[in-house]
Write a structure and sequence with these properties.
Elements (H helix, E strand, L loop, with lengths): L5 H33 L4 E2 L2 E2 L1 H38 L2 E2 L6 H14 L5 E5 L6 E4 L7 E5 H6 L2 H16 L2 H33 L2 H44 L2 H11 L11 H4 L12 H9 L6 H9 L2
Parallel strand pairs: 4-6
Antiparallel strand pairs: 1-2, 3-4, 5-6
Helix pairs in contact: 1-2, 1-6, 1-7, 2-6, 3-5, 5-7, 5-8, 6-7, 8-11
């Protein structure tokens, strides 16, 4: 995949962030409207009173927006500490590993970007990720395994990959999409339970049909949001690979690093899919047939062999 250019990629990710910030709240509000409309609370003699449901929605929507806004702000600004606790990452002291700090500093100087924090996960697995929302919180985290088992050129390629996520503002884009998908998931669960108990309480066939329709609408919206989120995540990995190759001028070194990482990337103790999505490698185990298609559709990372092939043709 050809490298687009850093400024073009920044503008593209900023545009996507705006679209996500606009699109996901609309989906959330649509789910709230569906809960109100299909709950049957505004039906008379088997007919839905659309006007009454709309009025109830207009009264509820501001409170939903406030609640979502508070949820988003808390998750957005607390994500760095949440990720650090989830992965068990600790600060990598400069005196303990000058090689890593020199690699990071040299790349940052060459790119004219501020030096991020450097963390380490005490794990033999081979993986790394970038996190943070601004210059004060930007962090590159490496596992002990990736530091010890990659040669200098390969490790430089991995660090450059993570720095490109920071420079391209991929990290911020990913965090925004993760938060909103999480909120939508919660809304879908609330809707399902609301429809279920409403149907059980009223015991009418129409309620059962309305519940099915409502749940299907929200479920489809949730799946579409996941597909959109994962497609963004996969694309950002290709772009970071290409950017790292451009930064280091050593595409085959990064390809070699990915080859070593493949099959050795599972970090024990990291059970959160949202956190695992931030790693340089997070592809699931291989499958076949229909499962292979579904796995690829909802995979957060492109197949590592395709990434290696793209780098070797760079």
């Amino acid at each position: 995949m050809a490298y687009v250019g850093i400024q073009a990629q920044i503008r593209r990710n900023n545009t996507r962030s705006v679209l996500i910030l606009m699109g996901f709240p609309l989906i959330i509000l649509a789910a709230v409207w569906a809960i109100i409309y299909f709950s049957g609370a505004y039906s008379y003699e088997g007919q839905m009173d659309v006007q009454a449901a709309n009025q109830a929605f207009l009264g509820t929507a501001p409170w939903v927006i406030i609640a979502v806004g508070i949820w988003f702000m808390i998750a957005f600004f607390a994500h760095s500490s949440i990720i650090q606790r989830t992965t068990g990452a600790k600060t990598l002291e400069r005196r303990n590993n000058m090689k890593v700090y020199n690699l990071v500093e040299n790349l940052c100087i060459a790119e004219g970007m501020p030096m991020p924090k450097v963390n380490i996960i005490e794990s033999p697995a081979l993986n790394a990720y970038a996190s943070g929302i601004n210059e004060k919180t930007y962090t590159v985290t490496l596992t002990r395994g990736i530091i010890e088992r990659l040669n200098d050129d390969e490790l430089e390629g991995v660090i450059a990959h993570e720095l490109m996520h920071i420079k391209n503002r991929d990290v911020r884009l990913l965090i925004v999409s993760i938060i909103f998908v999480g909120i939508l998931s919660f809304m879908a669960q609330v809707m399902f339970r609301s429809m279920f108990y409403s149907s059980m309480g009223r015991g009418r066939k129409t309620d059962g049909r309305l519940m099915i329709v409502a749940v299907l609408i929200v479920f489809i919206a949730y799946l579409l949001s996941l597909v959109f989120r994962f497609s963004l995540s996969r694309k950002r990995e290709y772009m970071a690979d290409a950017g790292a190759a451009e930064m280091t001028k050593k595409p085959r070194a990064l390809a070699g690093a990915l080859r070593k990482i493949s099959g050795n990337h599972r970090v024990e103790g990291v059970k959160s899919d949202d956190v695992a999505e931030m790693f340089i490698e997070n592809t699931p185990d291989k499958s076949s047939g229909v499962m292979s298609f579904l796995t690829g559709l909802f995979s957060t990372h492109p197949p590592i062999d395709k990434r290696i092939k793209a780098l070797e043709q760079y």
